[in-house]
Design goal:
Blueprint: H1 3-6, H2 10-35, E1 39-41, E2 45-50, H3 51-61, E3 66-74, E4 79-86, H4 87-97, H5 104-133, E5 139-140, E6 144-148, H6 150-153, E7 165-175, E8 180-188, H7 190-211
Antiparallel strand pairs: 1-7, 2-7, 3-4, 3-5, 3-6, 4-8, 7-8
Helix pairs in contact: 2-5, 2-7, 4-5
């Protein structure tokens, strides 16, 4: 299957943007409850790119090492969801989630657990909403905390292989009163993308049918 065959039409892209927007808004609302502060989100950007291009898109924005919470999902379509932070932000996020009462040592001890929990809440909320709106269900793996650069997070072949084509779904978010910013990215391969296209067409037909 070629990239052209899975390129999303304008209508499919609009529908996916709308679905993702709702999912991410719900995820932001869960995060706001956890940290008691307003979470600002960008409009999702959706592109079909190579894995190496996805890695570059993140690396162009962040020169420092990254921390990511990764959850794989499977169902009618499968892929990988990543919640990505600059490493310098991750401890600030842990402080926010734990209420800011902990010492520096306690924050370090709790970092892994708090990041995994935060990732789980945000990514689950986002993906469950997407699956629900497409009338399907997805299974998620337990969250895994990773550290490294864009190439490592997106598993780009260091020997120069370009990696597969993926749907790169990208949202930045920031927490208003704190120095916390991050990105949500979703990666899906071409067969999953072809299934997602069909589900989006079903969704659009349903919406058009309801309006008629």
């Amino acid at each position: 299957m070629t990239p052209e065959q899975v390129e999303l039409s304008e209508l499919e892209r609009d529908a996916l943007t709308e679905i993702v927007n709702i999912g991410v808004s719900r995820a932001a609302s869960s995060l706001r409850k956890m940290i008691g502060d307003q979470v600002l989100l960008s409009v999702p950007s959706i592109e079909v790119v190579s894995q190496s291009r996805a890695a570059r898109l993140i690396s162009e924005r962040e020169v420092v090492d990254l921390v990511a919470v990764r959850q794989d999902f499977s169902g009618p379509f499968s892929g990988r969801a990543l919640l990505i932070f600059p490493e310098t932000n991750s401890l600030e996020l842990v402080r926010a989630v734990t209420g800011g009462e902990l010492s520096a040592e306690e924050v370090l001890e709790m970092e892994h657990e708090a990041l995994a929990e935060t990732g789980n809440v945000i990514l689950n909320s986002c993906l469950a909403t997407m699956a629900n709106m497409l009338r399907r269900s997805l299974t998620m793996t337990i969250p895994e905390v990773l550290r490294g650069n864009g190439a490592m997070l997106f598993e780009v072949d260091e020997r120069g292989g370009n990696g597969g084509l993926v749907l790169f779904l990208y949202i930045d978010f920031a927490v208003r009163m704190r120095d916390i910013r991050g990105y949500i990215a979703m990666l899906m391969d071409i067969p999953s993308l072809a299934t997602l296209k069909e589900l989006l067409d079903e969704f659009i037909a349903g919406v058009v049918g309801d309006d008629a």
